[in-house]
Design brief:
This protein is an alpha/beta fold. Helices cover 32% and strands 28% of the residues.
C-alpha cells in the first residue's frame, strides 16, 4: 500500500542503485517494489526501471527515473540524528566514500546529489544550551567543521 505522503526523489536512471545504497547504509531502510515502464518515455524505454518504492529510516520514498532535467540541491536534505561519533563516522564515511562529497557543518552530498545532514544529538544539545555563551562556542566550533567532531563540540561547549 502506498503511503499517504511519500517523498518523491528524481534520478537520472539510477533510482534503484540509490535505493539499494540507502537500504544498506541506514537502519530501518528497505527497497520495496520496483516498477518498470509500460512503454517508452522521454528518459527511458519499455521495461526500464521507472520507479522504486523504498524507505529511508522509516520515511517512505519513491525514486523516479525521470532523466537529467532536474538535479538535487541543498534545498532538500535528510537530517540524520546520530547517537555517537562511531555512528556519525560510519554514515558520513559511507556517503562520502561512495562517490559523495563533503560539505560544511555536518552536511554532505551522496553521489546522486542528494544532501544529508549527519547531525549528532550532542551537537543539537550544545547549540540549544541554555547558557548562551556555551551555545555560541559550540556553534562557532561547528561552523569550522565538515564532519562533526563530537569531542570538539563538547570541549567548545565547556569552554
Amino acid at each position: 500500500m502506498v503511503a499517504k505522503n511519500t517523498i518523491c526523489l528524481w534520478y537520472d536512471g539510477t533510482a534503484l542503485e540509490a535505493a539499494e545504497f540507502y537500504a544498506r547504509t541506514f537502519p530501518d531502510s528497505a527497497v520495496g517494489p520496483v516498477h518498470r515502464a509500460p512503454g517508452d518515455y522521454p528518459a527511458g524505454k519499455l521495461g526500464d526501471v521507472l520507479t522504486v518504492e523504498f524507505t529511508v529510516m522509516g520515511i517512505p520514498c519513491l525514486g523516479l527515473n525521470g532523466g537529467a532535467a532536474f538535479k538535487h540541491n541543498e534545498a532538500f536534505s535528510f537530517q540524520v540524528a546520530t547517537d555517537d561519533q562511531a555512528e556519525t563516522d560510519r554514515l558520513w564515511n559511507a556517503i562520502v566514500g561512495n562517490g559523495g562529497q563533503e560539505s560544511a557543518c555536518g552536511w554532505c552530498r551522496d553521489k546522486w546529489g542528494l544532501s544529508w545532514q549527519i547531525t549528532p544529538r550532542a551537537l543539537t544539545a550544545a547549540i540549544i544550551d541554555p547558557d548562551p555563551a556555551a551555545a555560541k562556542r559550540a556553534f562557532e566550533a561547528m561552523m569550522n567543521m565538515g564532519k562533526i567532531d563530537i569531542a570538539a563540540i563538547e570541549a567548545a561547549r565547556r569552554g
